[in-house]
Amino acid sequence: MAREQVVEGLILRRWGAHEADKWVSLLTREQGKLRLRVKGAYKPTSRMGMLAEPLNIVRTRVVQGRHQRLMVQPQMITAFLRVRSELERLSAALALLELVDRWLPEEHGEPAVYETAVAALTALEQGQESLTVMGWALWRLLSLLGYCPQLDACARCGCADPSEGWLLNADEGQLLCARCGGSRTATTRLSSGQVATLRNWVQRDSPPDSPAPDAAPLLSLATRYAEHYLDDSARWLEFLHRLRALPERV
Fold first, then answer.
1. Which regions of the chain are under pLDDT 70?
2. Which residues, including other chains, have CB under 8 Å from residue 170's CB and lie 6 or more apart?
3. What is the pLDDT of residue 218?
4. Distance of CA 129 to the CA centre of its chain
5. Of 6, 150, 183, 230, which has the fewest beta carbons less than 10 angstroms from its beta carbon?
6. Contact, 223 vs 216, CB < 8 A?
7. How far apart are the first and last CA of the chain?
8. What is the pTM of this model?
9. How far apart are CA 170 and CA 200, in angstroms?
10. Residues 216-237: pLDDT tens digits?
11. What is the pLDDT of residue 249?
């Protein structure tokens, strides 16, 4: 990396450093995830603290020091104000950022991952249904990162549309027709309609405009599948599920 660059990126996470500084995890399109130090971010008079927060897309100078990189003179590009103002959308957005930050290694450019994250946040900002947006985003990310099972046909017999339905085998990372899946452990039964939804999701560059009727179970399946392969879970996503389960106020 050059000693000084101007980059644009999405802030995924921030945490405290010594004294008044903070660290941020910045996802860029071409260079992937960068770990940057923000000097004086916690000082009361500093604008850096406000700009260096998750959910912000910023353009900033990145200066390469001897042992660390510094974020210098960031400028706000997008703040996703509507997302921040609604608890459900905020929970979904923070869950997505948390997963992207945990799943991606540092300095490994993944333009499609960046575009997926921004597309999901943009859809939430525009008012699209949060579970559908999150379901699409997680399955799309699993596909881009190479963890999604092959969805075109049964991994055993090659059948593309079995009448008996489907089974997703998490242990083997395979989608099997019900006949080939048999009584295997760690399987989840899926309907033909749910598999069709997954096929559509992983091929799309942006979330579907209409809510998916099976968004909630497919989102839960994505998190369980990711936990099996990535040994990780999202605390904000768990909060979103609990929030959705609360009874509506009269």
1. 1-2, 183-186, 231-237, 239-250
2. 186, 187, 188, 224, 225, 228, 229
3. 93
4. 16
5. 183
6. no
7. 56
8. 0.90
9. 20
10. 999 988 888 887 777 666 666 6
11. 44
